[in-house]
Amino acid sequence: VEAGLCTKDFISEQPLSPIEYAYYQECKEYYNLTGQPIISVASEVFDDSIELPTSSLKICIDEDHNHFDLQQFLTKFCDKINVLPKDIIIKQIQVGSIVCDAEIFHDCESSDKKISIKMICQLITDKFREEFGKMKIFFMFLGSSKTLSKQQKYRADIKINPQYNRIYARGHTYWRGALNDRRDRGNQPYYCPVGWKRCAFYVTDNFYEKFKGWCICYHGTKFACGLSILLSGLKPANKAVHGVGIYASPSITYTSHPRYAEVKRINSSSQSKFFKSGKYVQFVLECRVHPSNIIKIDKETLAAGNTTIDFNIENKIIEWVIDNQNKSI
């Protein structure tokens, strides 16, 4: 980044594609709800078997480009991520909100690029996200631009699918014991998530054929992370008690513990666009995982002792560690 960079010198006439625009609008909604940006890092950064010839840096800022001071912003941004200004090359700025397209660590070898990006990842905490939020950053991506495009296309393909919404309770959808409806859900039982409402997404045509043999599990999350996960995927646990991986459970009772699934009261005007003001919600994701990706099944980590958490599932087999496919954020 050279001294005296001017925003107008980088303004591009190329508009965002409809898929990009929709993706960034969802990221902005997340930012408006939480005050924090979505930060995504391409999985190839953490895969030593894949080269990283170029490393893109995409930053979306909730500001009018007519009043945006590029030089001032980048100076502050570089200070936050401990990067020298010369390590960032601005390529273009697309307008609406500001979408800044850049390349980072241009002069580094692939392995050095990855090390440098991993060092940035070490800085990413809730406090770090809050600081970026104050800078009006609502999205940041590091990695291959092709990976970001795939991520955006994948998200665009996920739609609300009310046909498969369910209320799990007597008088609605309900069963006792492990479900036996002759559908192949892998080698793990599926119990009724009593008391929960499922809001379904369209994932693919012929869902039951494509996911035949895949097990059902749950992942509890904070309110602020719900949309982030849908936009950029699950990440490995920070506290890997049973080893590195994504943590899930066949028990919705276990994953809905407030340690995992935050109990959130909805009371702001922006949140009431999605939920009735004054109501309490929890987010638990129902996931499918191929049995070969369950790398460990182990005991609970709530220190429950002899207390039975879920009458269907023993405490000693209530946590699953899922292969994270080299992804760490």
TrEMBL record:
Matching PANTHER family: UBIQUITIN-LIKE DOMAIN-CONTAINING PROTEIN (PTHR36649:SF28)
Designated name of the protein: Uncharacterized protein
Taxonomic lineage of the native organism: Eukaryota, Metazoa, Spiralia, Gnathifera, Rotifera
Organism of provenance: Rotaria magnacalcarata
SUPFAM superfamilies: ADP-ribosylation
Entry superkingdom: Eukaryota
